[in-house]
Amino acid sequence: MAVAIDRRPPKAKKTSSKITKSGQPTKAGPRLKRHFARQWQLWVMLAPAIGFTAVFAYGPMYGIQLAFREFDFSKGITGGDWVGLKYFIKFFESPQFWTLMSNTLTISLSTLVFGFVAPIGLAILINQVLSRRRKRFTQTATYLPHFISIVVIVGMLQVFLSPSTGLITRFLENFGITGINFLGDTNTFVPVYVISEVWQHCGWNSIIYLAALASVDTQLYEAAKIDGANRFQVIRHIDFPALVPTMVILLILNMGGVLNAGFEKIFLMQNTLNLPVSEVISTYVYKIGILGSQFSYSTAIGLFNTAINFTFLVITNQIAKRVSNTSLW
Amino acid sequence: MTQQTRSGRMRKSAGVVAFAMATSLVLTACGGGSDAGPGDGKTVTILVIKHPLTKKMTDMTWVAELEKNADVTIKWEEVSADWDQKKNPMLAAGDVPDLIIGANAITDSDLATFGSLFEDLSDDLDALPNVKEMFDQVDGAQLLATSLDGKINSIPSYKRFWPQTVTHQYINQQWLDTLGLATPTTWDELFDVLVAFKEGDPNGNGQADEIAMDFAPLGTTGFGYFQPTALLGGTGMTISGGGGSGIILEDGTVENLFADERYKELVSFLNRCWEAGLISEEAFTQDYSTYQSVARGTGDEARVGFSWGWSGSDRFGPGVYEQYSAMASLPAEAGQSEDVSWSYDFENLTRNHVTMSAKAKNKDAVLRTINEFYSTDTSIQVLFGDIPTNVEKVSDTDFNVLPPADANLDPSTWKWTSSLADNGPIFIREDLNVELPSDLAEAVQDAVPLQPAFDGLDADKFVWPGLFIKMSSEDLSTIALNNTAIFGLAMPKFAQWITAGGVEEEWDSYVSQLDTLGVTANNEIHQKYYDEYIASK
């Protein structure tokens, strides 16, 4: 029963919207009515989610106008004088602008690339190489770090990478790599950030790929083996195509956060030595907005950040639609 | 516990509220509830910001005494967490209790915005003889209480005994003795001593594990306590709050230390120390808890030779702190013409401890309550706890603060458990003799060698009076914006010059770059307020 209902709404929705679009509003009324009469149970189930999004995601957006106003405590968020793009221009003209942009892009793009490729590799490896029992163990072992809090992770980095007593520093000394302060060097900040990020989230992010691989028909593997395919050919021609739709969707979603280099971790890893490469938009917004009480200015920077992210999301989505026929909308 | 809290707060903030060093207890937890006390006079509602460790207000015996003396019944509302979140809706709704008590609970910017909610006490001083006495006795107290437009909306606290500076300087005396060295008296001598510390194995364990010099991790937003800027005192520069955003005062002219030649001198010296391996190689990357724990050594084996802290036992831990002795400010060169100075932190006088609602129903009763808080006996008990369990009253002017009744607690925790402590409205008079608790006594003791640095100091002309300056929100935002840019350049440069050198070559372009980022503009704004302040003094 439930399944039967489940299948209908997309169809019904499509037809109704099409008709509204094609300019027959007189017919939309009764159709909409019929739609709700038939499917009200689904709408009731959806209601909390719609309500939540409306209240907590769309509602607070009225605060965006702060970016275009002079914030005044006594007049509230909507009461300040309208200053238009003043704060955006201030940001573009600020001496920090290009440093911030390049730092943010370097960190987030490298995290995006490595953080995107690594889980796919891991999922394929786990799927191909291990027996079922070991698979389960490895999977759990690799995703556990995901649950360690960022503060602890940064604490661990500080202990492991300490220039005098660090475990990893000492280990690298055996290979003749000495004299590098991994926590302070401007050249090592990004690698340390990205590697620890990949290490922490790789296992967790591979779960979704493993699920996609689990749905691959085992007959395909058997057929491939009978045809004499080796492991790499199996991966190339069976596993990989099975993963592509998931990969594309995740890539689009990740692109939506391209300028969102994680605030907490970068902020905690920041120190005076690595500041030239570790100052990113989010930490700058924190310093300007919260420490410096420049609410309008920080809102403008935040909005700029979101606008860029949104553009990337749309572009990636369009490209994906063209290239692989998979897209969010 | 005290330790963790301290490190947590210190981690990233340069200009942390000073006093927390001594007591350092701002945690989050839930507290609250309200209780009516005994007393038969009019009811006064008081919202009090207290530490989560602090026991209920009605469990403190001084509260009953206060109610009796002021002839009021107090209804307490106790807040020990998330005050900032509760405050704004409360103020916006205009619904404030008769009194709000807490250290800077209502800030200057709250008063600038919501000033009309609070009673202007400037015309009520006759009903507040104790407060009046404080304004008369304590230099700057009235000024601190008065807003730009001449109103007194909140009253500060004054605690004598607190040392004038938070950062004290320590050297390992035992190491000096072991190596047969004298206490250094200039930067150059310090350098030689540190080299000896590093190479002479003064802790005698056969390993070269000695850290000659260590300092608190630098924030990315200016300087703070226990950082090497403390050495600037040796060049005759008087910094405030460990350096903060760099504003200093030089014979009545506002300058910025980031662009000062003496700062360059310090950076070169530290670079020399770094190249010689005298500074902990983790100094720029460790966090505050590591910084603290390293100095505690292992057992009775010390690891750090020269460092800064609030008190010896706090900085170096029970195992090794007796090896250290407090030091005077070191002149940069032998026979220099400048007198040495030190970081001047304004620790005695703290702002905004009690505010009164403009709509208080029983105005006289509320004024009586305020006045009673500032009486000798109540102030002592608010700060240290009840007489006779926490404080022994010997005579009207002599008090002994007793050691913790619970042997597991340190004096600071004991104080915060027993009473409002530094959150309360307090006036500890100049003529009182108080035997201080051991932690405070130690900090006072450790400040003694630094005292000569303050003796000849003309505070009006050489100490930036940040505490007393109230700026318009427009100027504040200009300064904040400039500062973000200045720190973005100057803080990494400081670290880079020390670890990699290059200060000599890059200094000139750095200074002109600082200028484009607003150093001069900031100085001018500060100068304007300073001139007004001095004129009104």
From TrEMBL, chain A:
Domain ABC transmembrane type-1: residue ranges: 101-316
Keyword Transport: yes
Membrane topology, as annotated: Multi-pass membrane protein
Lineage: superkingdom: Bacteria
GO biological process: transmembrane transport
Coiled-coil stretches noted in the UniProt entry, renumbered to this chain: none
Membrane-spanning parts: 40-59, 107-130, 142-161, 242-263
InterPro entries assigned to the protein according to its UniProt record, in alphabetical order: MetI-like, MetI-like_sf, UgpAE/MalFG_permease
Main location: membrane
Keywords recorded for this protein, A-Z: Cell membrane, Membrane, Transmembrane, Transmembrane helix, Transport
Family the UniProt entry places it in: Belongs to the binding-protein-dependent transport system permease family.
PANTHER family per record: BLL4140 PROTEIN (PTHR43227)
Protein name, entry field: Carbohydrate ABC transporter membrane protein 1, CUT1 family
Organism in which the protein naturally occurs: Sanguibacter gelidistatuariae
High-level lineage: Bacteria, Bacillati, Actinomycetota, Actinomycetes, Micrococcales
From TrEMBL, chain B:
SUPFAM superfamilies the UniProt entry points to: Periplasmic binding protein-like II
Signal peptide (from-to): 1-29
Sorted UniProt keywords: Cell membrane, Lipoprotein, Membrane, Palmitate, Signal
Top-level taxon: Bacteria
Membrane is among the record's keywords: yes
PANTHER family cross-referenced by the UniProt entry: ARABINOSE-BINDING PROTEIN-RELATED, POLYGALACTURONAN_RHAMNOGALACTURONAN-BINDING PROTEIN YTCQ
Protein name (database record): Putative aldouronate transport system substrate-binding protein
Organism: Sanguibacter gelidistatuariae
